[in-house]
Amino acid sequence: MSDMTEQNRNQNSEGDTHVQTRKTVRRGGGNPADRGRTSIADGVVEKIAGLAARDVLGVHAMGSGLSRTFGAVRDRVPGGSKAATRGVKVEVGEVQTALDLEIVVDYGVSIADVAKAVRENVIAAVERMTGLEVVEVNIAVSDVKLPEEEDEEPETRIQ
């Protein structure tokens, strides 16, 4: 940035004219990315984690039976949508976050492998999208979906 000179002519009470020279000062030096603070709401991290967990093969649903039942009712309300945060609880700090997930797995899958894959996918998604360090992802498997069980969220009659 070039220095610019601005001259102002002022007269004092005796009638003398003097010249003031002022150089333009560069404002807010430093890296623009460091000017300010970004805060991320808990709900943002919950949505990212919920969607990342659902992407893992072997995860049938998120949340406990009760929360899934209430969610199924809520999803049927016109204008309602599936709750991306169901079964996800987070604590978000300035630079770190911790997550608790409650999942239902499909029968026949290795629960340990599914939990590991969920943990890896959630950590990668949250850290990539938010820049927060994920310090822990606790996973509680609340149920196993058996092949002969009906879904509590049946298909709608209208296509």
3D architecture notes:
There is one protein chain. Helix 1 crosses helix 3 (111-130). Strand 5, helix 3 and strand 6 form a beta-alpha-beta unit. The strands form two sheets. Strands 3, 4, 5 and 6 form a four-stranded mixed beta sheet that branches. The protein has three helices and six strands; from the N terminus they run E-E-H-E-H-E-E-H-E. Helices cover 28% and strands 30% of the residues. Mean pLDDT is 80; it is low at 1-7 and 154-159. The longest helix has 20 residues, at 111-130. It is rod-shaped, with a radius of gyration of 28 Å. The chain has helices spanning 42-54, 65-76, 111-130, and strands at 5-11, 17-23, 59-62, 88-92, 96-106, 133-145. By secondary structure, it is of the alpha+beta class.
Q: Overall pLDDT, averaged?
A: 80
Helical residue percent band: 25-40%
Our count of helices gives 3
Ranges where pLDDT stays below 50 over 5 or more residues in a row are: 1-7, 154-159
Biggest sheet: strands, sense, closure? 4 strands, mixed
Basic shape: rod-shaped
How many extended strands? 6
Q: Quote the beta fraction.
A: 25-35%
Strand-pairing-aware structural class? alpha+beta
**SSE pattern, N- to C-terminal:** EEHEHEEHE
Distance between the amino and carboxyl termini = 62 Å
Specify Rg, calculated over alpha carbons: 28 Å
Q: What brief labels describe this structure?
A:
159 residues; alpha+beta; four-stranded mixed beta sheet; two-stranded antiparallel ribbon; 3 helices; 28% helix; 30% strand; rod-shaped; disordered N terminus; disordered C terminus
